[in-house]
Fold these 4 entries.
Entry 1:
Amino acid sequence: MKASISLLQRASKHIDKYALYVPKDGVFPKGFKVASHATGVKKNGNLDLGIIRNVNTSRKASAAALFTTNKFKAAPVLVSKKVLQVTGGEGVDAIVVNSGCANAVTGDVGLKDAQEIADLVNAKLGKENATLVMSTGVIGQRLSMDKIVPAVSQQFEGAGNSNFKDDFESWLNLAKSICTTDTFPKLITSRFALPNGTEYTLTGIAKGAGMICPNMATLLGFIVTDLPITPDALKKMLRSAADRSFNCISVDGDMSTNDTISMIANGAVDTAVIDEAHEYFPQVQQQVTEFAQQLAQLVVRDGEGATKFVTVNVKNALHFADAKIIAESISNSMLVKTALYGQDANWGRILCAIGYAKLDNLQSLDVKKINVSFVATDNSEPRELKLVVDGVPQLDIDESRASEILALPDLEVLVDLGTGSEECQFWTCDISHEYVTINGDYRS
Amino acid sequence: MKASISLLQRASKHIDKYALYVPKDGVFPKGFKVASHATGVKKNGNLDLGIIRNVNTSRKASAAALFTTNKFKAAPVLVSKKVLQVTGGEGVDAIVVNSGCANAVTGDVGLKDAQEIADLVNAKLGKENATLVMSTGVIGQRLSMDKIVPAVSQQFEGAGNSNFKDDFESWLNLAKSICTTDTFPKLITSRFALPNGTEYTLTGIAKGAGMICPNMATLLGFIVTDLPITPDALKKMLRSAADRSFNCISVDGDMSTNDTISMIANGAVDTAVIDEAHEYFPQVQQQVTEFAQQLAQLVVRDGEGATKFVTVNVKNALHFADAKIIAESISNSMLVKTALYGQDANWGRILCAIGYAKLDNLQSLDVKKINVSFVATDNSEPRELKLVVDGVPQLDIDESRASEILALPDLEVLVDLGTGSEECQFWTCDISHEYVTINGDYRS
């Protein structure tokens, strides 16, 4: 009983994530406007509908998206997939998101509802196949169309579409409108210059916070930019960025029916269009990957009930796939995650999770070559605390230093396989009492 | 905060598992004797050393075992594996188990320690390669040989090995001596007759209670019987039984470094030796499988912090492997397990887990044919509450009946794939606040 109380007390010492991770201002790409609304689907009256519009008319926008691989794909996933297939990613001008209801496993009626929302926005835009739809929330319940449809219409009323804005507050509200169990809205912005001397802007929004698993989670994310780029190049870039960001995070190992990461590039900055062969393509890809990593990390930081942000760094593997599956196995282990929560230096569980990783190729794991350390991410010394050296467990580990590192809200688990030069970083969090509370009563 | 309190209150209403699942007496096979001892490895002074001996001398005993597939195999696993390789499973007369320390990831020194214990018992028995060793507890710490070695020796002192007994109390103490976070010792016994008119006895002992995952868990289990059977037939029988029992349970999805299920058949009942071709073999196999299922289910019932025992029954699959992986995916889902804890009829999470199961063959899953129900296991009606019928979610589910079923300590999740005739049953439990508490502070 004593342990229980001490852990609960520890969990109650919340970090003020809102203050830490929600920006006070930002830079936003040209030619995008947003609106959000509280339709009443969320019982608490919070914002639950958001619309992003491309209002640039100088050229057609490019869009790309990655969807869940879950076999029960939600209706909005099916509808959005079709839009991208039909258009080839050209001319998509709006994303409509609702939270509170996932419109998943709702059969034909759910598909009809999602299509109706897309059609409504298309009609308002005077275009066809120009709208992506996304939903997040409870599975298996029908959308409250009586609340959502009038709310969508209402956004397009008023002279000059005055409900759509591009100020910081409006973007932050958009980020709020897609939240479910998130404790803070996830909004990041960035400006970068290419060698042509021109600056472009990226804005990213995401929601977590449970069902987070490699190959995407109950994760909605979108990135918009004013860079001009072809649909094919955008798709390639998004796939690569997601493989190094949204596909490298874990909260609870569940993969949802609704996961969608999408990107719209409207080319509102009037420079030459970038394609895959363009000399700037690698640099843009790098920028977008780092940006996606920042956004994905925010999702882990807001993992349901999480008190810790942990980077699992697996390096010197013979194959990248092996490094990734080992990082994933550690990141998903319930026993590693609860030990991290309890600040228990039970590093044996880390080795255990490495040991049951389903390796494609055994060559990356040599139990005589493995090194495992905890690494502090503040400036304290010694930065690296070696737990296993060349396969030999260090039986005289400095437990007080281990406790210091484990008490940090940010820390790293470093695994050096010593068999090659490939590496993979994964981002994960601990599993707390609060996680159980949130997910035990989610629908209530 | 309200949800948190209500869930904690619910969790505190503990079922008295000890009274429900610990037998008051039992039947034990001829020719086995046991001893147990508190060596002081467990800080609380509880029993932490157990020895089973075959004392039948009419013929050589047969032994078989299945070990963890974790790549970091604990020292006792490596030592025991070698014993079975060298002997072909013939003439193994003792199993020594310690709890409190897993002797895993302890390198060469750990291997030496495990071998020393086996050698000590061999010397006491006056035999070679006759002892299996098992350990369970914290990973990465060295065995306290100063406590264990004298305690092992001590058991063999006294006239006529008087420390070894075959009464109910001694068997129950043996079951207690292998517990770690278990809340009750797991001991079952059974007597069955073959058509030859002779009765044979099975006694099974197991420990859980976390790190429980398909393909065995931090699970130690042994079954002893006085049936005469060849080592090869025993091995085949144990493999088949484990595939339908210990490999069909899930507590938290972690697989340990120490998992071992072993069986010794000493043939103390003097009838013809059974081999794979024997007419009674299928019947014996059936008996042992059902017995192993009972034992495996006890491990789930004592899942760390578990408040519910859930049978996941996937039927009418095209392939058995598909049925198993779908059952496993549901059984391991954190979101399904927390919803069960919260008694939340969030069946969408069940479909979600089915949807991300890594199917070998997609043919077993047709989203238009799937049926999902909650099934009550008491005598209340309607026994089956249909949630999804032929792929169509039932939007007017009787939520009060759903709540009644979810409030039961035992319930079934039934998935009918409607694509074939194969089926698989899995046994799982919920994930509670208590699970997090236990695993956050395990080493303390």
Entry 2:
Amino acid sequence: MQVRVLVRLKPGVLDPQGRAVHHALEGLGFEGVEDVRVGRLIELDLADGTDHDTIKAMCERLLANTVVESFTIEGAA
Amino acid sequence: MQVRVLVRLKPGVLDPQGRAVHHALEGLGFEGVEDVRVGRLIELDLADGTDHDTIKAMCERLLANTVVESFTIEGAA
């Protein structure tokens, strides 16, 4: 089974990478960019039947730093 | 409008970060992990009505290195 984990910085946490991308888009002439946030996309190919709690444990123990990051799990059974 | 861009390494391109995560998950005792790929999540807050071609141009010119990465745009009008 394919599972997608999205890891984002929590609101209020400074995102220098996002600011750099925002600035660069404006420098390239793109208008109307109001905000940019950069996070991680982690695609897991897991044994069928892996339960949501196991995936959540993977996120909490390794994939996300829950002090400053939040995560969402998509595509789990 | 909120747009989400997912940037992934193309199939066949070595993903050392994904391998490291895979190895670490096994080291933590998680079983049944078959593959892990790590990419980037870029969340854009754009002016309403920004068209798909503009967002595609942002990806091709800045957000993704299309030599080794592919991108998908989600949530665009």
Entry 3:
Amino acid sequence: MQKEFLEVKKLYRNSEEFIGKTVHVAGWMRTSRISKKFGFIELNDGSFFKNIQVVLDEEKLDNFKELSKLPISSSLLIEGELVKVDNPKNPIEIQATKIEIEGVSDSSYPLQKKRHTLEYLRTIAHLRPRSNTFSAVFRVRSVVAYAIHKFFQERNFVYAHTPLITGSDAEGAGEMFRITTLDMKNPPLTEDGKIDYSQDFFGKETNLTVSGQLNGEIMALAFRNIYTFGPTFRAENSYTARHASEFWMVEPEIVFADLEDNMDLAEDMIKYIITYVLENCPEEMEFFNKFMDKGLLERLDKLVNSEFVRITYTKAVELLQESGHKFDYPVEWGCDLQTEHERYITEQIYKAPVFVTDYPKDIKAFYMRMNDDGKTVRAMDLLVPGVGEIIGGSQREERYDVLMSKIKEMGLKEEDYWWYLELRKFGTATHSGFGLGFERIIMYLTGVSNIRDVIPFPRTPKNADF
Amino acid sequence: MQKEFLEVKKLYRNSEEFIGKTVHVAGWMRTSRISKKFGFIELNDGSFFKNIQVVLDEEKLDNFKELSKLPISSSLLIEGELVKVDNPKNPIEIQATKIEIEGVSDSSYPLQKKRHTLEYLRTIAHLRPRSNTFSAVFRVRSVVAYAIHKFFQERNFVYAHTPLITGSDAEGAGEMFRITTLDMKNPPLTEDGKIDYSQDFFGKETNLTVSGQLNGEIMALAFRNIYTFGPTFRAENSYTARHASEFWMVEPEIVFADLEDNMDLAEDMIKYIITYVLENCPEEMEFFNKFMDKGLLERLDKLVNSEFVRITYTKAVELLQESGHKFDYPVEWGCDLQTEHERYITEQIYKAPVFVTDYPKDIKAFYMRMNDDGKTVRAMDLLVPGVGEIIGGSQREERYDVLMSKIKEMGLKEEDYWWYLELRKFGTATHSGFGLGFERIIMYLTGVSNIRDVIPFPRTPKNADF
């Protein structure tokens, strides 16, 4: 039956083809205004952000009376003529000749026309994708995900599926969730009274991954250029608007490539994504610009046409100190940059996206390449106006000896990294990579300020509903 | 630096553009044959399945001696002239004018030229992507993943990210992994001595998902057509060649669509994927056809050009009974079809892919649409030669009352399904969907017979290495 029903998106995009013809559409009644003999239904079929207006004429429809009493969100199968009307915003409508009721909605449907808070809408995550805001957000999310795949695949990158269940806390990037099938009440114990994970499902302690990077490096050192794109987890009790316990990450890794290549790739990717979503979701982006963030389209347009600034951490610290601005956290060389610092650099000093590179080694991960100064590593963060950090990456330490001494210096266990070290033993090569928090870019692109509103079914502390 | 180094894939695909010119490539030495004054290196740069031959001439290279002693898998930066040679299999080679050694490999490199068993290669998962077999498998895996996204996005499906951490065992599709941050040794207990999950991270018992379908239905009933594509988990102690604890699934869900639409979609998708991979990975597919499964290309070609058969379960049982074939498990109406039955139907009876529909309700899930006969449900399985079942799906029960009584009949808890039921209350609609085990299709396309060899870092009972 589906082929029979044209997508509303097609009616809008190729309206010339259908005007004057009989068309069939199927969708949900978003609103209706029906008088005794005449009426209008705003129908949304899910294929498109915009509704199509359906005109009801009592003389043409047997069930006109029934339709006039129908609760909103009822689903309808509609036959009618597509006609052109003199309305620049909605230049087409359907004059119905037959309307079949597919599913009558209950009048208690909670998404009535009045405005709801985003907080309330989170409690009806099974219905909120039917609202304008979430219809736009989740479609943009889908289109951006595809843009990311398209960007990398067109450049011959291999999409690498790195594991979510991990037996090592190798990156130490954050708190982890334990995975187990042991009886929680009577877990097996070893002789010295510890939990005996050798009897657990995987024969050892396992957790949910915090990053696919180390596995990604394996794949890159075979395929030259790879990317991961999948779920990642953090068991941190942070109730902020920017943190979720389950989120998606994109992690490209490139070989025979240094930090400059890494920044080029990040800049190209961001510009590609923005351009793609502007081209493919014009209605949704218009909506966000109007209702979420008035400067959005201008900001994105500017970003696509700007060259990203590249400065060192040392330079950034100097600039912040010279600025005379009073920060909550004073800046000095060696400290990690706070969001207020990052935003000041990108919003006040440069008014453009800024790569900050070569951070002090003590505030960065063990795998980042040591610079000749012995004090800094080849790290990079990309800061963008309105958000702050959106990408973090580095050139990786490719020298076996340097990596080994770093592992020891940081008190990590050599045996946990045996295969990671072997990558440096069997044909090591200069390589680099970065991580993009997928939700961060969606928030940036939509103007939505809470991460709970860009994930269909968010997981946060004390919340795993739906 | 990366832009300097042309991809070997480009040299092969656009060789006319580069012949007679100086090119730079970077890659790993797969093999070498070097005599006193002259030599050959087979270089693989990861961008392409095939190696490029590099010709070494002592008179042109200062470090010829050093190069002649280099262990395989060393990484090299090469400058030289691309020349045409009279060899249909490898029509181009590089006559090196300069070779820089990027990373010397250790001579203990385990992937020496001799053949290794797949079992052994699993123990060096950090190096096996550099072998011909795994280079081909994981590239095909990447290209198929992209083909799936492309197929659905071109048809205006929304890519829906359903959660991996779930608070409900709603589908009951299999054993689950528990996720917890509780102290395993001293978990908090409730007054009646049970584990007090209200003190766990999410405030309740949580597990890793076995299917995104129920959440997918939420999204479909807002967007008409959606698909999920992500990791899925089964905590089952099965040590078979076809089961992994972590694997990827594709689950489209379509609205205003019945089981016929569902089968059309599945058939179109399978044909699209195969056509795409044949076009985009000809070298890899040639390799599989030669070394993994001699009839592979012929079988795939036949499948793309065949019309898939559609029969009911009742008919399938009749055919199996009439066949006179002696099965390990005798067939009678009401039993679940075993792999031997499935393969007999698709390989012996029809010699083509077969959809089997309308299974007995007692062997299928609660959400499948009840037929008017009261005995069967609108389920479908797609069986393909060489594998058996590759897709399972159904039309979903869209009638509130029927679904409710089914939930009660099967002893499920109504409150666990409150939102799933509400989808039938607020504008329900005919809808359908299916699940494709991503690894199954990769195995089918490559001829690889063990699921551990189509996942870069497989998770199976007692194994979460790498």
Entry 4:
Amino acid sequence: MAGMQRALRAAKRALQAGEVPVGAALWLPDGRWFVGRNRVRARRDPTAHAEMEAIRKAARALGNERLAGAVLFVSVEPCCMCAGAIALARIARLVYGAPEPKTGAVESRFALFASAQIHRPAITAGILEDEARALMRAFFEARR
Amino acid sequence: MAGMQRALRAAKRALQAGEVPVGAALWLPDGRWFVGRNRVRARRDPTAHAEMEAIRKAARALGNERLAGAVLFVSVEPCCMCAGAIALARIARLVYGAPEPKTGAVESRFALFASAQIHRPAITAGILEDEARALMRAFFEARR
């Protein structure tokens, strides 16, 4: 199963749990996968974003806070916090689906990785974007 | 004990543990304090910064991912990840000691809170700056 499909499956589980539907899947060069989903409400934790969960799981499993060669798939453009964590973890490649116009820190509101002062992953955007966007729309329309 | 002194005490413990010496202390309006220190190496967790630990502890104790009225004291200027978490947690006031020229996201390398798109705490910098800087210098000189 491709990485973005894993991330979208996690995003769907977040939606079912009443969370903003964002999912992440992290691939390590040894072949292992680590999946995370947004759990901010369930955990009462403002830092419990999908990317953070996947990064923390992978670092714990690897026994190293730097994830050399890792590829992170996220259904939606990461926020400032998650983009910062991606840099700290030395993620090699970031692949995401839909841009996040209000909080996106890669291209939409901030361009954190445009700075030479921060580790910059290779970036691919727009993968399965429609599916990611449909999940976000379903969540926000249900709340109105 | 004042907030920055709590943060500096936590930073000293981080130094003793061989971590980059950054400490944080979070005050909630109900009078409770939550302390965090950098534990990146011990936990093998790139997200285990002092501010993150203090914010996560406080949100768990409060049962709310938004920390209305909270004041966060940090010995060193927060990075992108932590500044993002500060915004997500709706911290009311951020007080920090020394600027961090390489990674600081408040004034030094990025000015995240200058954006109208993100929750912006009131900010006070330079409190007990010399003490915070001395800890950082001790850590990096010992590594040479």
